[in-house]
Design brief:
By secondary structure, the protein is α+β, with helices and mostly antiparallel strands. It has helices spanning 9-18, 34-45, 66-73, 77-87; strands at residues 21-29, 50-56.
């Protein structure tokens, strides 16, 4: 998705209907972020797709350079892959 509002409901529903788990990734706070809007829409739609959010946790992150802040928030490439792998059934991980 390139934007949050208006939410591309057709795209989200299409993806949710074809997958067991949808992973949202944002360099923003998880609470109240794009992933929350997606999860809310999926719940209201009745789709049975699980939603896993990867983003900045609701904790204080000290001021630092972008790389260090991403590391503290768990937003490095390695941390993102690890989080995704714990969210997706083993049979599906071959495509990650």
């Amino acid at each position: 998705m390139r934007w949050v509002k208006p939410l591309d409901e057709a795209l989200i529903l299409s993806v949710a209907e074809r997958h067991h788990c949808l992973i949202t990734l944002e360099e923003n706070a998880i609470a109240g972020g794009a992933g929350s809007s997606i999860a809310e829409f999926i719940a209201q739609s009745g789709a049975t797709c699980a939603v896993r959010h990867i983003g900045i946790p609701d904790t204080f992150i000290a001021h630092a350079g972008q790389g260090e802040c991403r590391q503290l928030a768990g937003l490095t490439a390695e941390a993102i892959v690890a989080a995704a792998q714990t969210s997706v059934p083993m049979a599906s991980q071959q495509t990650l």
